[in-house]
Design goal:
- The chain is of the alpha/beta class.
- Among the domains are: 148 residues, Rossmann fold (3-Layer(aba) Sandwich), CATH 3.40.50; 96 residues, GMP Synthetase, Chain A, domain 3.
- The protein has 18 helices and 26 strands.
- Strands 3-2-11-10-12-13-14-15-16 form a nine-stranded mixed β-sheet, with helices on both faces. A seven-stranded mixed β-sheet has the order 7-6-4-5-8-9-19, with helices on both faces.
Length: 540
């Protein structure tokens, strides 16, 4: 920490790095815990031990080799979270292929774009609740590139000749920790999805950093993921943890319900979980929560958006476990966290950097600003991505020559080294020449007892350039008007931060990784102001 020098820079180091490939790490876990459950898919009634998982992975890898795939080829995987997903990812990694993650709810145009940009040789389709095979035929029909399509069962059955087993033994030893292994797409909450390349080393050590809060790692912890995500959040929360720390990963259902979530935590005796704001909201408002035995649960991590303090504290009371706030990105995985031994105030902020993570807050010239000053957050860590696939310009614009990642987020360090997020550079509201940051206002408004969720956005204004619009999703059946919100904020924020508009919403549109889609929300707001002839809040 550089707090005593009044510099906005922080770093901690207490977690040794892992210098293995994903398959080498799997071999180590099989040696340590061969019969421990590795993955549990409750609704599918599928369970697999570390040893059985490794055996199936190597069979699938031999099948991929029989298709002529070689190190560096891209293997597209289009599926929900079922057993075939971690199996396919692990098989690809074992022989140096690069998995291209395609989420099942991506529109056809996005899927076609990803397949074209990555030049994927083969695509593996998961089981078919979303009719993926028919959708893929439509995509192929409008594409000028051929791509071979298989199910995982088909691939697993075609590589049993001894020559492919011998080939596997050679190919797995050619894979290095610094080799590319995965391409993720960003959430798309702030623009078109970017294709983010991670290596074996960055994926493994990014996850190891995140899971540093787990004590006594040799004990059989069971981590529950209550949402269907083949995005990086699912990677760090479900796919990678069994490899990195030997825990069991549990998934309830590709189709989320709070009932199935609670039943799974209870029946599987899960010790920790990840809930985004939707899961936290559903938990604290579920009237039959007392029917479930959740005593095994010790830690719930959350993040992805601003979380109301009351919601977190309510969850902690009802679940009798502690919530930790995470901050991260597809590019850097998880970077900071409040920890379960921090004070309540700290636990409701992004907290301090994880071990081996460096964070600094800088001005437009890349120089650290003094403590307490707002600047752009830059970070550097062993879990950092390598590049944006096929986009050298964007990579150079985002990663400095010294490997600092420019997050585009605005933040501020306090005198204790605690990081607070105040918004994104692109979300600053320039109102009449004054800069307004959304996050601090959202934090104040989230403490209002009648507000469930809140977003502060900027809309165009003829006189001021931009005006503030507060978008509110109220608590159940509660009525809120603009004058009330104006009065609530008066005295709590600068006069320039008082809103021009207050709009009420039944729900907010989210991206496929659970984040509120601010681009879509802004369009909705501008449409409503124009077409519903909404007037500014009285007193502006």
């Amino acid at each position: 920490m550089e707090i005593e020098r009044n510099i906005s820079y922080a770093s901690l180091s207490s977690c040794p790095l892992i210098g293995l490939t994903a398959h080498q790490l799997l071999e180590k876990r099989v040696f340590d815990h061969p019969d421990r459950e590795m993955y549990v898919f409750v609704e599918d009634k599928e369970r697999i031990t570390f040893k059985d998982f490794k055996d199936r992975v190597e069979n699938i890898a031999c099948g991929l080799l029989s298709l002529g795939m070689k190190k560096g080829d891209r293997l597209a995987i289009w599926t929900d979270l079922h057993m075939e997903f971690p199996l396919c990812v692990a098989a690809a990694r074992s022989i140096g292929l690069i998995s291209v993650r395609i989420r099942a709810n991506f529109p056809n145009s996005t899927v076609q774009d990803i397949l074209h940009r990555t030049d994927s040789k083969v695509i593996v389709l998961g089981r078919n609740p979303r009719d993926l095979s028919n959708r893929l035929e439509d995509i192929k029909g409008s594409s000028d590139k051929s791509i071979s399509t298989y199910s995982l069962d088909e691939i697993e059955k075609i590589g049993f000749e001894p020559k492919f087993r011998e080939m596997f033994s050679l190919r797995k030893n050619e894979v290095n920790p610094d080799d590319d292994c995965d391409i993720f797409s960003t959430s798309g909450s702030t623009g078109p999805p970017k294709l983010v390349v991670h290596t074996h080393s960055s994926g493994i050590n990014g996850c190891n950093t995140f899971l540093s809060y787990i004590e006594q790692k040799d004990k059989p912890h069971r981590r529950y993921l209550g949402r269907n995500s083949t995005h990086v959040s699912g990677e760090v929360s479900l796919v990678m943890p069994p490899l990195v720390v030997g825990i069991t990963a549990v998934l309830a259902s590709p189709t989320y319900t709070i009932q199935s979530t609670l039943e799974t935590i209870q029946n599987e005796r899960c010790t920790d979980t990840l809930f985004l704001i939707k899961g936290l909201h559903d938990f604290v408002n579920f009237k039959e929560i007392d029917k479930y035995d959740l005593r095994s649960l010790t830690v719930c991590s959350t993040g992805g958006s601003s979380i109301p303090v009351d919601m977190m504290e309510n969850f902690e009371r009802k679940a009798n476990c502690q919530v930790i706030m995470l901050y991260g990105s597809t590019e850097g995985m998880f970077l900071t966290s409040s920890t379960h031994w921090d004070s309540p105030t700290i636990r409701h902020s992004p907290g301090k950097p994880f071990s081996n993570v460096e964070i600094k807050v800088v001005n437009n010239d890349g120089i650290c600003v003094p403590l307490g000053n707002v600047g752009e957050i830059w970070c550097r860590s062993p879990g950092m991505f390598k590049e944006y696939f096929g986009d050298e310009k964007r990579t150079k614009d985002t990663l400095t020559p010294r490997a600092w990642f420019k997050t585009g987020d605005l933040g501020v360090f306090d005198e204790y080294g605690i990081l607070a997020i105040v918004g994104r550079k692109t979300e600053i509201i320039n109102k009449g020449g004054a800069k307004v940051f959304p996050a601090p206002m959202e934090n104040i408004l989230s403490q209002h007892p009648s507000i469930n969720q809140v977003q502060v956005i900027g809309v165009s204004d003829e006189r001021l350039g931009m005006e503030i619009c507060i978008c509110i999703r109220p608590q159940n059946d509660i009525t809120i008007d603009g004058e009330h919100i104006f009065a609530y904020l008066n005295g709590k924020v600068r006069d320039v931060n008082l809103p021009g508009y207050v709009l009420i919403f039944d729900h907010f549109t989210t991206t496929d990784v659970g984040k509120i889609d601010r681009k879509a929300l802004t369009k909705q707001v501008e449409y409503r102001i124009k077409n519903e002839h909404i007037l500014k809040v009285k007193g502006i």
